Amino acid sequence: MSEQAAQLKSNGEDDLARLAGDIDKLEAIVAGWDEHYQLTTTALKTSIEQLHKEALTRLIRALKDDATAGAKLREALQDQVIYGVLLYHGLVKEPLEPRIKKALDAVRPMLQGHGGDVELVAVKPPDTVEIRLVGSCHGCPASGQTLTEGIEKSIKEYCPEIVHVNQVSRGRSEVETSDEN
Length: 181
What we know:
Residues 171-181 have low confidence and may be disordered. Helices cover 66% and strands 12% of the residues. The chain has seven helices and three strands. The protein has helices at residues 3-31, 35-64, 67-76, 80-88, 96-112, 143-158, 172-180; strands spanning 116-124, 128-135, 164-167. Helix 1 (3-31) packs across helix 4 (80-88) and helix 5 (96-112) packs antiparallel against helix 6. It has a three-stranded mixed sheet, covered by helices on one side. The two termini are 34 Å apart. The protein is mainly alpha-helical. Strand 2, helix 6 and strand 3 (164-167) form a beta-alpha-beta unit.
């Protein structure tokens, strides 16, 4: 990342925190108002958000097919304010690996309740994830069902672009260790 890009990112984070703080303060004020005024304010907020989302959608649609403009759009996503607003409006996705980790975290309590767990071994874009069952889940007769009805279902819910969830017997650290020898 260039020095200028790093500075923009830093400023973006500061700006985002300040703006989010301003919104929190205003929401606290509105929370003390009469319900009629709260509903009116909420309706106004929703209308403004819908207008902004439509404008941003049209802007992105107009620019994304141009190679130079598309590259600039991707570069602009490095700015935390731009990324945050587009993510809020559902116009960009959270990166794949954090979504996969959220999916695994969603099934982890069930697995840990039986003395097991799951590890993310690899993400192989565009559509494949490798996981490893550990603890009591590793080698369990019901591990196939756990994989398809629990883990795979959760991953596909959080990451619809994932088509293949492969169970492997060696984790990332084991692969790295054996590759070094």
